[in-house]
Specification:
With about 210 residues, the protein is of the alpha+beta class. The chain has 2 domains: about 70 residues, Muramoyl-pentapeptide Carboxypeptidase, domain 1 (Orthogonal Bundle); about 120 residues, L,D-transpeptidase catalytic domain-like, CATH 2.40.440. It has 6 helices and 9 strands, in the order H-H-H-H-E-E-E-E-E-E-E-H-E-H-E. The protein has a 9-stranded mixed β-sheet with strand order 4-9-1-2-3-8-7-6-5. The chain is elongated and about 55 Å long.
């Protein structure tokens, strides 16, 4: 396993590293810089080459010192830990959205006001990355293209929006969006919807 991989084995890797306090957030299944750093720490502590990638020797050593993760360890219901905010999120009013930690942080002048778990589009319909602005808000929207409800929709890039997803709430990361940023906590999103204004910045980053 290496940087850029995204699968269930990566999720298991993260859960096992978390048992040893090398990984301090909920498993996401995505192998990014945070996971690479955790792997390097594990390798160096056990006398393995600190490559940040998982070879057979690293995997076997990890299996030997951890237990098979439970379903709750693999997909905990608690909110994912935020990673270090992108530099573009540090000024003004920003929806700071991290694909690596799968979180949305509502930030004002560099301070986190609230945060929530999110999921993104599939490989065929990816969520666009970059800096955008909220161009419209619709409290009770409906997707004519996909025939699904989109409550508390905040549009930022053509048809892509932050919105509540009952499917995400029910299935977690087993599913995906058609490009939108799905939120599974309706109560948190409802409060956020009332605070965000058209023209506020949106940053989507790894």
């Amino acid at each position: 396993m290496k940087d850029g991989d995204e699968n269930e084995q990566v999720r298991e890797l993260q859960a096992r590293l978390r048992q040893l306090d090398h990984f301090d957030r909920a498993p996401t299944g995505f192998y990014g810089t945070i996971t690479a750093k955790a792997v390097t720490g594990f390798q160096e502590k056990r006398g393995l080459p600190g490559t940040g990638s998982v070879d057979e020797a690293t995997w076997q050593r990890l299996l030997a010192v951890t237990k098979k993760p439970t379903a709750d360890e693999l997909k905990p219901s608690t909110t994912n830990e935020l990673d270090t905010p992108d530099a573009r999120c540090m000024t003004g009013r920003v929806l700071c959205i991290s694909k690596e930690s799968r979180t949305l942080a509502w930030m004002i002048d560099g301070e986190v006001v609230s945060s929530m778990d999110v999921r993104f589009g599939s490989e065929n319909t990816p969520t666009r990355e970059g800096v955008f602005l909220v161009d419209r808000k619709v409290r009770d929207d409906w997707s004519k293209l996909y025939h699904t409800p989109m409550p508390y929709a905040m549009y930022f890039s053509r048809g892509q929006a932050v919105h509540y997803s009952s499917d995400f709430a029910a299935r977690g990361y087993n599913g995906g969006s058609h490009g939108c940023v799905n939120v599974r906590d309706r109560t948190k999103l409802a409060a956020l919807f009332d605070q965000v204004k058209v023209g506020d910045k949106v940053v989507v980053h790894w």
